[in-house]
Structures are given as structure tokens and as C-alpha cells.
Amino acid sequence: MDTSRNKYAMRLLSxxxxxxxxxxxxRAQAPNTCLDCHIALDPPYKVTxxxxxxxxxxxxxxxxxxxxxxxxxxxxxDAMSKKxxxxxxxxxxxxxxxxxxxxxxxxxxxxxNPSLRTDQFAQYLTSVHGKRRVQGDxxxxxxxDCHGVHDLRPASDTRSKVHPLNIAQTCxxxxxDVAYMKKYSIATDQFAGYSASVxxxxxxxxxxxxxxxxxxxxxxxxxxxxxxxxxxxxCSTCHVFQAQLFESSPHRAAFAAASLPGCVTCHSNHRISHxxxxxxxxxxxxxxxxxxxxxxxxxxxxxQIAQQLERLDTSxxxxxxxxxxxxxxxxxxSDAWLEQDQARDSLTKSRVAIHSFNxxxxxxxxxxxxxxxxxxxxxxxxxxxxxxxxxxxxxxxxLAIVAVVIGLSLYLRKIEARQQ
Amino acid sequence: MLASVRKWLDVRFDWATLxxxxxxxxxxxxxxxxxxxxxxxxxxLFGIQVGTGILLLLYYRPSSNEAFESVxxxxxxxxxxxxxxxxxxWAANLMIFTAFCHMFSVLFLRAYRKPRELTWLSGMxxxxxxxxxxxxxxxxxxxxxxxxxxxxxxxIAGQVPLIGRPLMIxxxxxxxxxxxxxxRFFGFHVAVLPGITTLLILVHLALIQRxxxxxxxxxxxQRTPVRQQSREMHFFxxxxxxxxxxxxxxxxxxxxxxxxxxxxxxxxxxxxxSAPAGIRPEWYFMFMFQTLKLIPAKIWRVDGEMIGILGFGxxxxxxxxLPFLERSGKGRGQRWALGAGIFALxxxxxxxxxxxxxx
Lengths: 420, 359
Description:
A: mainly alpha, B: mainly alpha, Cytochrome Bc1 Complex, Chain C, two-stranded antiparallel ribbon
């Protein structure tokens, strides 16, 4: 009886005993006496076990000594002796070089992540941050400012400060701080502008990770503002067709002569709102009238392009409305809707084509779209006519049915009267 | 003209003798006799189904690559194709509705009693066949809703103990709902089910012809032997003409539904897409579907859905065998059958409404 009870107790306890044994073995294999003390220290010296266990370096088997030196296997002051290579706290100015020691070593990095780039340090030295750091500015960003220190996660981790969803917030910690940035005489409204932009909406609200954040345009380790002459190259990495059309447009030379940046002049930089047709033409929201005045060729072209777009937009909306009415009446117009999608594509292409700033070029797309909307509109009208035809047919049929029922009823009355 | 045709037939086939039973046949007249029309209307709607179904067959293509497009073609390009397909779909739903009404009217008027047990039995089988027509026909346009509803429906069939999995594989023609499922559903819909149904309808009509119309016990005492003679109506032409009027009215309702609310087509089924929200079966399966949704996953360690399916199966068997079970119950049996009928009607109606209102 006792034996069986003991066996039962052993069976219950065995998972816990195994875990305890494994934990003891693990500690025996890789002792880290640094954490034993630093867990109990106050900030900034405090490093918790939980914090460190989340760190990518710790997960890859690196220890405190990998960066700070020393011998974590010793549990007294010998662990932090110069003899053991202890470097202690790494000064801000030294952080890029310390990180670069491993991250610039291709052979070393291949052991952990063969696909990881190893040019971060070299890039950093070309960045505004890096250049100023070299000049002795201790306030500019170093690796740990963006990536964190003891709880450093890979950029693919949504909790990482450098995950695409978090980058703008990370940059804004300095760049939106008026007091901190005062010394550099640069604007601090970039984050506020970006937060109201179409790019932020796509990335953070729609979760489209391909949408741009700060580093997409400015670079990450080599972060620098794009120059006036090269800004369209930045935008063109995504907006390829617009950039190609702009390059061959009259604006290319005109903007260069006036030292105006390509895309930004009309679309702004950080606060890029959803473009509307109202930005064209000569209305209150037009950006064309910022430079063009009544009578010049650009003013006329802007007026013409705006009219072209409005014509196709109105035509597409009209056709959609007719098809909506036909569909809600139960008519089968799915083919027409498919064609209507092509009309909307033409409208989108026309909106891209406006970057040629050439009414004739825009007209090519507009004409294709108008041809489709004329067809879909006609199909919608035909469906509505068919609906009316069916209803007339129904009315006539119901009249015939009522007449037959009345006739049958009268005939029944007649024969029943005769039968009685 | 009619007289000469009759004479022509009489000379050759002894038409007068052949139609004599029809002329002698009478239908009881009482305050509940209008319920007699429901069976005829259901038969008329079945006829409409056969006619429109044959017309649809001229253009329909039963393969997963062409089914949707062929129905779309019928709806948009074929002359009056929209009307034929809409009438076929609406008539299918109306037929099942009138079949249910007919079943409940027979139940509440207690027309299933001796000697009409086999009439009830054949009627119940016809009702199940009508539901089978609905289930198999629903998939044929190969649209998204039908595809996923069939997936769910055949999944439920797969839960039946012992025969569930083989049954599901048989229905689907494999592990998943594919073009093979469409092919066999088409086969069931246009060959197997119509064949069996036509045979059973003939049996059902022959039984009605042989046994006559039942007089409800509620109105029986009012019908004294003396008055009874005067309260009968000739089946031909009196009842048949009235039935014809009912058919015309049903035709008008069908035409109005088809013209004012043509049956939609939806979007083509994509077997690789995830199921859209709000997948539900046809309305006549809704009470069962909603019940299965409400049953807990496990009831005393037994799969809840399986208990639900077994419950519905048992209820279906009891319902079909009602005349035989009631006879053994004698006096009290009449009361439980009436109570069960009221409960079933209330349960099916409330669960159907709940199923449509619940998100």
C-alpha cells in the first residue's frame, strides 16, 4: 500500500523534479553572476532576468560579458576585474563601435544570422547622427537609443522599438521634443505631420507593413534628410510611374531651376494627405495656383486636366449609380460591374498620368475610361428598361390570371346552379 | 368541338367508362375544406419545377468550371432565361412551404388516421424528397453561399454515428466539396430524386383516389347522414376547377416574385477562399441548423452535435410513423399527436426566426 502511494507521489512530482534538475544543469553550464547582483540594483544599473531573457543576444547565447567584459562565472569582485577584461558601463560615444565590433564582422554574424547586413556601422558613419557623433555631439542617437539596451529585440518583433509600426514613435522621442531639438534648429512637427498622413494611415491603421515610415525615406542607420534634388528618387521607390512621368514633364527642369523639391512641393513631406482631384485645376484647394497664374500655359493645362478628370469621375459615378439601381431591382449586371472596374482603373491611371502635366497624355487614359463608362451606362439603362418591360409583362400576366380566375368562378357558379 | 373529341375517344377507348370513377368521385364540403387545396398546389408547383427544370437543362452545365457561368448566361443572355430560373428557384421554395403546410394541415385535421396511414407515409417521404431536391439544387449554381452551405450541410451529415463518414464521402464524392460533388448533386437533382418522387406521387395520388378525402373529426358530428349527401361536391369539374383557380393564383404569385425579385446569383464559389460570414442553409433547414448551433459541444462526454442529429433523426422517424404509433396510444395518443404537432410547428417557426435574427 505504502509502496504504491510512494509511486503515485513520485509520478506526480516527477515533472517538477525534472524541471528543477534541468534548471540546475543549465545554471551550472552557463553561470551569469552579473544578473544576481543587477537584479537587485536600482536603475540605471537594474537589469531584470525577465528583461534579459527577452533580449535577442541572450537568446543567441551571448552574455553580459560579451559587451561589458569581465567573467560572469566568478561570483565576487573578480568578475569585474580589469584582469578579466571588464569594461563596465559603455560610454555613449563608444556604443556604435562596440556594437559594430560584431555587427560589422561578416564571418562572425554568419554564425547567428547569415542574412543580416553588416554595414550598419559604416552606414551610421554617413548619417547625420554618425557625423555629429564623430564631431563630439553626445546627444545624437547611437544604436541603443533606437534599439534598446538589455531587452533588444529583432526588428521583426512587433514589440521592438524598430519594428515598422513603432519606428515613427521611436524617432519622435527626440525629433518631436522641442527642448531637446532646440540646439539643432530643425522642425519638430514631423511626427505630428506623419501621424496625420496617408502613409501613417496605411501603416498603422490598415496594417500595411509595406507603407513607409521614417526610415523608408530617410534610411535607418544612414539616416539623413533627402536633398532637394533627390527627393523624387526617394518617392519613386514606391511611386514608380508618377516619378517616370514627372521626369519627362516640363516641371522637372522648372523645379530644378527654382530649387524646388520634386514631389514635396505639391504633396508636402511628412503631412502627405490623400491626394484629391481638387488639388488640380484652379480652385481653392488647388496646388497649381501656388505657382501658376491666370493666363500662363501651366494655368490653362491645370484647368484642362482638372476638367478631364472631373468628366471621367462624373461619368463613372453616373454609370455606377445606374448599375446600382438596376442591381437593387434584381437585374443581373455583374458583367457590367466588371467593366465598371476597368473604368475605375482608367480613372486611377488618369490620376497617375497627371504627373506628366500634359493634357494630351492625360486624355489618352480619360478617353479609354469614358468609352467604358459610356458602355456600362448603356448596359445599366438597358437593364432598367428590361426591368420595366418585365413589370409591364407581369402586370399584363396578372390581369390575364385575374380574368381567368374570375371566368372560372363565373363558370363554376353557372354549372353549380345547373347541378342544383 | 369538345363533344366531337369526346365522341372520337369514346368510340376508340370507351372514354366514358374510363372517366366514370372521376365523375363519381366527390369531395366533402365543410368549413375546413379549403385545406384540401394545399396538396394540389404542391403538385402544381412540382409540375412547374419539372417544366422549368427541363428548360434550364438546355443551357446548364454541371461542372465547377462552367456551372456558375452557365447560370449567369441563362440569367443575362437567354431569352426569358431569367424568368425560367427565377420561377424554378421561387417555385422550389414555395413547393416546400406548401408541402409543410399540407403536412401540418393533414396532422391537425387528423387525416392520417386509419385507413390513410400509407397516404401519410408516402406524403412524409415526398416531403423529405422535396427537401433533398432543395439541398441538391442549392449547390448547382456553384456560388459562394451555396458552396459553403453545402460544405456545412455535408459536414453535419458526416456527424451521423456509424454511417456519417461514408455518407459524407458519398455525398461529396471525396473528402471535400469539389466539382465531383456538383456532378453527383446534379445527378441526384435531375435523375434520382425526380424518378423516385414521380413514383411516390403516383402512389400518393392512387391512395387518395382509392380512399377519398378524409373528413376531420371536428366537423364529423355536424355531418348527419341526411345532410351528408347534400354536402359533397363533384371532384370533376367542381373541385378541379376550384383547384385550377388556386393554381392560377399560385402562378400569379410566382410570376410576381420572379419579376419583382429575380433570384440572385451571388459570386462564383472559390474553394480556396475562407468562408464568408453569415453562411446559412435554406430556410427549411434553418431550425435544425440553429438548434445544432445552440447545442453545447459536449453533453455528458458525448458530442453535442451528434446528439442533435440523432434527436432530429429520431423525431423524423417518429413523425413518419405517427399513424401507427397513435393507433397503439388509442385515446391519449390523439392528444399527444396534436400537442406534438403544435410544439413542432412552434419550435420550427421560432428557431427559424431566431436563426435569421441571430448574428
